[in-house]
């Protein structure tokens, strides 16, 4: 709404007061409080009302929620009375008045700290509640959940916004590439597919093509990662041919082809996990396979600008580590701290490598000082996810966090290659949490951590609970 600031009859003193009738209840507030709602809010527009107009402004909305919102403008905090309303009710009213940004800030969880996190909710899509995969937004903590051939979207306050049905039988990988557009891959359908969730439709499909080999047209996507300008997708053919395609985000066209390889050996397997590292502009790909002879796999770094691989390690294989024979069961990438993490399959030990100083054997093994917490078994069912410079490890159903200790020496400076004291390990969950099932996927978004478990419906939402002055309204 436009504010008529040029009228000489307008009240201009911030301490002047204005009366409003909201749903039959009288409210009185200062102009400075109303204008704190921002230049585009209904409150600010009302604050510039002509003083010659003696008619009381009537707003046909809920007066109880209005009292919560006006208190928010006065203190930048939600009052305790906000607990009487759902998050969706508050969000709808805040959107009407044009102060949804202020409400979102007040309702946002505390800065995420894994040590103090707890499971505050479980999101269960209405149909086919078993999630195949999901993607979370790093800014606002919203989440898109794939279940079967459908995707259900939940906004910043975890309210269901929409569900769309794709043309795919099953969705195995999903990556948010624009605020309303996702790149989707399926193990049962060829190609990389793009869906616009604001309109619920398919806006494009990219396929890997090769005139000399028509079979490649049927290649399916196993992993997806996104940079500011590109999307990277790992394509795999049933006849053991695979590569990574770089796709322009704006045109949805193939820009380049990376790491084409073929064969049945593990070192030629398609990457099952892709991570883009913005600070160094490199793409990290990894894969892990298991069989009768244990685990094996690789980690590789590519520079898309040159199309060349800049570093790799194979376990077991050419990249011999100080614990050769104990190959990794899973891999994580800390894009903020520029570190690689691996979980050893036999010992269950966690190791890290500084991405700025990679070499043939870059691993530093994180030591557990508490004898009662030392790993006694392997990592047969494990997941690693790095978020906010914390390393979250799911072992079977247990969830733990490794947090970097500030002021400690860099890993490269620690004698003997053991990083005792560099990271501290803590359990995030309680026994009742770990008994829910084996952890399948972990992903951070906003100030939240999302977890899915094998054969368990819904996605768990974890937030930090040691907040000061924040009222929970969930």
Automatic annotation (TrEMBL):
Q: In which pathway does it act?
A: Protein modification; protein ubiquitination
Matching InterPro entries, A to Z? BACURD1-3, Beta_prop_At2g24240, SKP1/BTB/POZ_sf, T1-type_BTB
Q: Which Gene3D superfamilies match?
A: Potassium Channel Kv1.1, Chain A (3.30.710.10)
User: In this protein, which residues make up the domain named Potassium channel tetramerisation-type BTB?
Assistant: 18-102
Domain At2g24240-like C-terminal beta-propeller: start-end pairs: 133-464
Q: What SUPFAM superfamilies does its record include? A: Calcium-dependent phosphotriesterase (SSF63829), POZ domain (SSF54695)
* GO terms, biological process: protein homooligomerization
Q: Which Pfam families match?
A: Beta_prop_At2g24240, BTB_2
Quote the protein name from its UniProt record: BTB/POZ domain-containing protein
State the organism of origin: Acacia crassicarpa (northern wattle)
| Organism lineage | Eukaryota, Viridiplantae, Streptophyta, Embryophyta, Tracheophyta
